[in-house]
Automatic annotation (TrEMBL):
Organism domain of life: Bacteria
Keyword field: DNA-binding, Transcription, Transcription regulation
Pfam family, one: IclR_C
Domain (HTH iclR-type): residue spans on this chain: 10-72
GO annotation, biological process: negative regulation of DNA-templated transcription
Presence of the UniProt keyword Nucleotidyltransferase in the record: no
Protein name listed in UniProt: Transcriptional regulator
Entries under PANTHER family matching the protein: DNA-BINDING TRANSCRIPTIONAL REPRESSOR YIAJ, HELIX-TURN-HELIX TRANSCRIPTIONAL REGULATOR, ICLR FAMILY
Length: 262
């Protein structure tokens, strides 16, 4: 009996966490029916769990009946987690400096299994163009500059595993998105040769991203930084100077993590 109770409790916890995870993709709220469909639960079970999460302060209803979203309590927990990461205390001053030097959007991410997770972002100093990325966002590896870096510096067999594990996630978001395994193999080989990655409007039309890896003392790439800007604005830049700024920042952070060479 005790084992059955424990199993039920764990199952409920997993389901509740799944609802939180799904709601994180719907900042403006998600309808109960849609949420139940995505979680593969019936509506009554979903509603019951939402009521529990609401009573604990993690979920609230929007002004639309039957629509739910996460509360700022989740944001507070996330920020406390990020604040506890030593990497940010090292990286933030250097990322701020890069943002000041370039005036462009600066992104910083960490590797988490088959995703890159945005853990710090600075908006551009000039202009009105803003990217859709946000802190806490899970970025797909195949269509983001930082994600492609993580794949390029992983074990050689990882790409095939990633590609075959969930073929449905490989979608053509723009005309430039790489969706053929052989093409991605060639792309990652090129990234290792030049030492940086680019998102050439592969995720969002009109936006280009240039990313450099962050190495630790073992030579592993667990973090990456990038600068995003409009493709039109990139054409006005001295590209060599811009990439030099990004690389110098990545090198400085890497050295702080004990990397012996870059």
């Amino acid at each position: 009996m005790e084992l059955e109770v424990k199993k039920t409790t764990n199952q409920s916890l997993v389901r509740a966490l799944s609802l939180i995870d799904i709601l994180s993709d719907y900042p403006n709220g998600c309808l109960l029916a849609k949420l139940a469909e995505l979680a593969e639960l019936n509506k009554s079970t979903t509603h019951r769990m939402l009521q529990t999460l609401q009573s604990c302060g993690y979920v609230q209803q929007t002004h639309i009946s039957g629509c739910y979203r996460l509360t700022t309590k989740c944001l507070a927990i996330g920020q406390k987690t990020l604040a506890s990461m030593d990497i940010l205390s090292i990286a933030i001053p250097l990322l701020n400096k890069l943002n000041q030097e370039t005036g462009e959007t600066v992104n910083f991410s960490m590797r988490q299994h088959d995703h890159a997770v945005m853990i710090y972002k600075l908006d551009p100093k000039t202009g009105l163009t803003r990217t859709r990325a946000y802190v806490g966002q899970h970025l797909q590896l195949y269509c983001s500059a930082m994600g492609k870096l993580f794949m390029a510096y992983d074990k050689p067999e990882y790409l095939a595993h990633y590609w075959q594990q969930d073929p449905m996630r490989i979608q053509k978001l723009t005309d430039n998105t790489i969706v053929v395994l052989d093409d991605m193999t060639q792309e990652l080989r090129h990234i290792k040769e030049v030492g940086y990655a680019m998102d050439n409007e592969e995720n969002e039309i009109g936006t280009t991203c240039i990313a450099y890896p962050i190495f630790n003392f073992n030579g592993d790439v667990l973090y990456a930084l990038s600068v995003s800007l409009s493709t039109a604005k990139l054409s006005q830049w001295d590209k060599t100077a811009l990439m030099g700024c990004i690389k110098d920042t990545a090198k400085a952070i890497s050295y702080e993590l004990g990397a012996s060479a870059y």
